[in-house]
Amino acid sequence: MLDTQALPHYFNAEHADYRAALRDFVAREITPFVNEWDEAETFPRDLYQRVARLGVLGIGYPEALGGTPADIFFHLITAEEMARSGSGGVSASLLSHTIGLPPVNAYGSDALKQRVVPAVLRGDKIAGLAVTEPGGGSDVASLKTTAVRDGDHYVVSGEKVFITSGMRADYLTVAVRTDPNNKGAGGVSALLVECDSPGLTRTALNKMGWWASDTAHLRFDQVRVPVAHLLGVENQGFKVFMNNFNAERLGMSAQACMFAQVCLQEAVDWARERHTFGQPLSQRQVIRHKLVDMAMRIEAARSLVYELAWQVEHQVGDPAHLVARACMAKILSTQAMQFCADQAVQILGGMGFMRGTRSERIYREVKVMMIGGGSEEIMKDLAARQLGI
Within a 10 A sphere around the Cβ of 196, how many other Cβ atoms? Predict the structure, then answer.
């Protein structure tokens, strides 16, 4: 009753089979260990290869590069079932290629794609995205990291911060400014940087949540990057990152709904088992209403996510309106996650404050979901512009 519904107008038998296989894998290989990995602030690197053998990393990529062509609902299933473990840190790191690799696949040369993409999809290499800067936040167009052409190389200098998989990554798709005279979106380019390049240093960051995920501050000190690593057209990289963000926001929305559902399920289980004054908590009207409020928010957010995904998959609707709906989906779903995490911790009482419960971990991870991929405030402003408000 509380689980994801197999709605036939969105999901078919192939979707169901993939969901079942991934759910079983997560239950066996991830969920039992998330507390341990959270405390260790890491997880085994070979988990990438194990996930890859299941086909998860290759979803949506061409067969010629080792992937499996798939529709958008396979991506949503991946986001949901990985989130079912209750660990955003593990999910964020394992799936960091979903934001780091698409620009390579879409805009890289054939030679670059052949060298990079298959290795990442096998889990042998790790890919990430480096856009955010210490003074920039969500304002991508104002980035200051520069890339100066020097023969057949770019020389990159600057800093990036809050970079998921920043410590482990072998490849990073980096936003740089290639036109110093253009201070806006027009001077931005996308480069693929190999992380063993001389001049690149990485510092691990401590965080409120996502403990199992490695997050880094990057410094580029005249890092030489081959011109062949340019993704797309020089000075036209802004659209590369904007298109990438739309997909990222939809995936984050699906994740947020599942994190909210995990909180709801833990709260329901606890309310049924915990007795006060001779009755289970689930028989108290005030608790029952809290649980329904949680379920209501999840249903509303997930309905928007699924309907938006269907529109994107079938290319239905005005593009500007779809961007606005993606912004609204991220806001609605992360607010649902925030509400459900808060209510679950309250229902669990003292146990909700203890490390080791799923709701406690998700409570710590709410804010990164509301800020990452575009803060709530930026999302509302972007949606307003797209809607002509």
Answer: 7
